[in-house]
Write a structure and sequence with these properties.
6-stranded mixed beta sheet, DNA-binding, about 65% helix, about 600 residues, mainly alpha
Length: about 600
Amino acid sequence: MNPIAVRAKSRLHCTIVFNKRAAEQSCLALLQSCDNLPKLTQVHSHILKLGLHNNPLVLTKFTSTSSDLNAIDYASSFMFSPECDTRLYDTFLFNTVIRAYAQTNHLKTKAIEFYNLMLEYGVFPNKFTYPFVLKACAGIGVLNLGKSVHASVLKFQFDNDIHVQNTLVHMYGSSKGGIECARKVFDEMSERDSVSWSSMIGGYARFGLSTDAIDLFRKMQMSGVCPDEITMVSVLSACTDLGALDVGKWIESFIEKQRVNKSVELRNALIDMFAKCGDVDRALKLFRNMSGRTIVSWTSVIDGLAMHGRGLEAVALFEEMVGAGVAPDDVVFIGLLSACSHSGLVDKGKEYFDLMKRDFGVVPKIEHYGCMVDMLCRAGLVKEAFEFVQKMPIQANAIIWRTVISACCAHGELKLGERITKWLIGNDPMHESNYVLLSNIYAKMFHWEKKTKIREVMDKRGMKKIPGSTMIELDNEIYEFVAGDKSHNQYKEIYEMLDEMGRKMKKAGHVPTTSEVLLDIDEEDKEDALNRHSEKLAIAFALLKTPPGTPIRIVKNLRVCSDCHSATKFISKVYNREIVVRDRNRFHHFKNGFCSCRDFW
DNA sequence: TTAGGGTTAG
């Protein structure tokens, strides 16, 4: 027990008989020293002995005392025990309980429960109540719940308070389907501070509405409200999502110029942005010069190296991290295993998978099993992957099964792929990607009738394939292309360029991989369909708009197809351009006819 | 005696 508590305890014993007021004071001091359940239980017995359990001051203190989860539960259940006089409930008491639960990771629903109880007992909420309650709603992320609390805010007329408004924006911006409501609250605010802007930008960034996030940041600058380090973290995460390296670099110089406080979180966001936007060396440099690295900093660089196929460096960095005394967590193991996966380090990956639990006490989750399956599949060990999935102690999810199916498709195990996919569709008949996989398998089998049927089923059920799209950033503008896109105002020049590229590539020896076109059309049309893939459109656009010799960077939403991969190699050679492609999984650096992934992806 | 926004993976 700490010195204050000892003093308080001795005072408590001395004063029990003399005066209740002093006992109360001592009791409060004792409570102050409580940071775990056993101490709290001890103090509870004193409270009962002294008859202080009806004292609202003590009751409140008791409830708000501990950060120990069990203690919060214990304290809040005390509120509803027979010893407790409910007439003494007040707003502050409920606020403390709600705050305690809102701050936890897993008991946020309890915060809402207590808010409802508060209303049931006729205790009025005040302007402090709603930020707590809304924060809990934000953590739960269920839109209807947040909406009902919003209705309460209006009923009790706290909707003019900027703190409440900001938390409303945050709550809607954290709930699925709530982003428009967030924007509505945001637009209707009479005054906005940096928290309002950050909450809205953060909401866009959280749900992948990254261009909206960056647009809003531009508006923020015009509004005259000064962005701070928290705003910048969200803006950077939007850049990371888009792969917008130029905007990211601009943000970095903005941070320098505006002297934005470079918190550890902001440095981490910068490292992550550079790593995922294709400049992993810059990320490494920032990382090396950084003091106060956290596990997030290490994870970002390890992950970045993994995406660039620099698996051995990622492994070395992981070892360095362990050597530096940083305990690895489950997230860093995902990066490490995916580094092994992307670089074909199968044995190393297996080794780490075994020792993560044994040596570091990190229990593998579904994602780690997913990495292992991915690793085996990439290495062409489809049957081993299948067996691995069957032996897993936890049930495989659809993502893992789809990994296996794709590998079946790529490595000619079509029958097995068909079997798994049919089973998967039986379990989840409304997931469109299962149908896409099955239809691809039938195309590879040349079963065109079956393939057509699948497409018909999809149409009937209103399901659509996610279209492949490619983004490119030129002069701080972001352009997006989909296959066969003609929406761009320079599309005629782009298509002329495509024809030229096709001719030059053929001359250099490129043979289109027409088996990638999973349509029942003749070979010439297949070539045409390949030529209109979104990445080729983006590259053609870049060749048109940038001076010779400058590197081209593009970002794909799906994995790059093998024809585009082979074509890009030829383009890099024919046009003497370095081309950096970020696809859904990793980076490909094309230079002089070769790709950094060594055709391993 | 209490209030709002941020980072890694999936």
